[in-house]
Task: structure prediction
Amino acid sequence: MFDKPIVMLDFETTGLSPDFGDRVTEVAAVRIVKDKIVDRFVSLINCNVRIPRFITELTGITQAMVNTAPSASIVMPKLMQFIGTDILAAHNASFDAKFLHSENRRLGLMPHSANLLCSLKLSRRIFPGLSSYKLTNLSTSLGIDFKSKAHRAEADAEVAAKLLIYIGKHIRTNYNLTSVDPHVFNEVNKISAAKVSVFLEKKFIINTKL
Result:
């Protein structure tokens, strides 16, 4: 379905912003090829920081778990190698982008993808009017099940990937397409939800007639 591979990324962290000293505790990245998840990279990360109690209560990630995990200097280069040159996506991408760039800056690494495709923004535009676009609520609204505990990186990345596949199938069906270029999602995210339908009709229906 997708004509280019996409890697869906998710970080669990000690807080909301690396600007306040927060660090990554876990990462998951799953690769989508066409309409299937075909590969994944998952690791806890020891960033030598204290795990707040509320983070442990939310995620289940304990201090003991990260104390024995590999360091960011080991995990992040492996993550960047896994991503390669594929399109990179995340749910609420601005959050994950902050931590991706912060951890890479510490290590002098340069991500290939400057921007992350945001499945949260995309969902707001493709499915306007839902009560919530948080991943847990959105997945329930669309009938996408979590196979394991939410707020762990692998579970969240997998559900976000399934969400992106769901959106791709929705567009492919509604506009009678054989494949979907993921780059069109970045175009959709730049316009308001009210204009999306007209934009997609012009882009896909007119093009199929040429």
Notes: The first helix runs from residue 53 to 59.
